[in-house]
Design brief:
Length: 343
Amino acid sequence: MEQLLAQIEQLKKEIAESAVTDAPSLEAFRIRFLGTKGIVKNLMGEMKNVANEKKREFGQIMNEFKQFAESHFEQWKEQLEAGSAAAGPSIDNTLPGDNLPLGSRHPISLMRNHIISIFQRLGFAVAEGPEIEDDFHNFTALNLPEHHPARDMQDTFYIQQNPDWLLRTHTSNIQIREMEKGELPLRIICPGRVYRNETISARSHCFFHQVEGLYIDENVSFADLKQTLYYFVQEMYGKDVKVRFRPSYFPFTEPSAEMDISCQICGGSGCAICKKTGWLEILGCGMVHPNVLQNCGIDPNKYTGFAFGMGIERPALLKYGITDIRLFSENDVRFLRQFTAAT
């Protein structure tokens, strides 16, 4: 025990003569003396080697040594903190800050927001819904029978855990969910991502974005639909854009039409994007089928409505003169940086 006491006295003398002048030396002192593997901890472990009649005395000496080391540590710590506060901040706040790189919105987001803003000026509200949907809201309620080819595995991604679940193939499921609420009249647009099992190419992708619109009220006619879409394309592409409607078929609308505009890439003269026709199909539309209204609890004898749907990628291709749809999802910063000024 006498050897341990002599060691402790030597350590106390060393502590008293130490000069701690900065944070690194203070931390080094803490680790050496007060750390989990420090001198104080190791000396405490020597208690087992002390005779039983001397343990009480040795314990008191060790407690005093520990308090001695801790008091010096706290004293040095307070001195350093006081000195740091008196010296003021260690940085020059008058220097200019670092320039941060300017980000940008994705071109799809730019186009989505632009489309929304146009229809909001016409009184349309924005509605959103789930991307994983059940069969009823994605197909059945939209007058799509079980044998319809859109339900085929070649067109639709189904969820393996439940055959009734799928990745929505359009944002029409949002329209169904909004009609089920029974809050009429209803005037909404439904933007969102959709999924179809298609071959990826310059013109198509397995996922893309849509904006669909729906207006239901008393005495809504096809003329209301045409005037709404005329306003949209003129606001989007300018007053000189040419428009044509072609009869078409959709199970959820009757009558139905495809809407084309003059190609904004070639000015109507013919190019690869418009397949040398001078026209580009941008959306499908029509009057809401009475069966769809009935499926949602709406009286088709009292209410009528129109619906339309368009991809966001295709208007973006035309708006920004982009020729490959795959560029939107490749995350190439060189491509995306071009749209910084457009935000």
